[in-house]
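Changelog note: in this version the structure field was regenerated for every chain. One regenerated record is shown below for reference.
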Amino acid sequence: MAGFIERQFGIQRPIAWLDRLEALVARELAPSGRKIRTALRISTIVTIAIGLDASLHINTQLGAVIVWLVAGAGPMMSIRKALAWQVAVMLALITSVVMARAFAETPWLMLPFVFVWISLTTYVGATRKLGAGMLVIQIVCLITFYGVVFGPQDIGWNAAASFDGSAIAFGVIVLFDNWLWPDPGEPILIESLAASVARARSQLLKASNFFLVGESAPRPQLPAPTSDLPAHMALLDQAVAEGTSEYRRGILLAAITRTARLSLEMDRLVTTAR
């Protein structure tokens, strides 16, 4: 009876679900030209930023952290946006140094203040969609509050080093995003949509072959438990943040919607064919 149910309704044993998970992980971690270029680009930016920090004798790791946060996930950064974030870092450093000095002798008051500050900035960053920039502000403040407890004599130098490191990091990112090695989100989105359509085509061929030929053909694998729609929408938001027009945004959104519907229909077809 169990075998009949498995054959008729496609109920899989746990080992089959593990196989699906293994296939999903293998697909996500498989090397590709896009992944290699992205990794090489970010590594180059980080290396140059760290090299400039070392050459200028700036004792901070904040520059590398900013590069990994901002360049790794987010739209291309314009000069205006970089200046705005640098001013925000400056204000955060001034505020955190003053408040850290005020709470240095009362750590039981510092902890609630840090909790409220991080909660408030997290809420603002999520509602305003500020992205990784708000994480930079939070890291700057946490470094200052940590330093006033374990190294109060160096709090001023550490704040200055954090400001210099962030300035170098934002400057290097702006150079690469606008002139040296830009990597906008729209081409990545189009490439991802093409890959999704190619996977749907492969699923269609395997399912139709199994349905028409019979048991002699290999049984198609169950559809992946995840969807490409969240990743596509994130890339669309990135393209819009980079200045894509409303008309172009409508075209890309229509392509994303059609690709998602096509993937759903292919999943149903594969499940039925099995």
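Spot check on this record: The chain has two domains: 37-180, 184-273. Confidence is low (pLDDT under 50) at residues 1-12.
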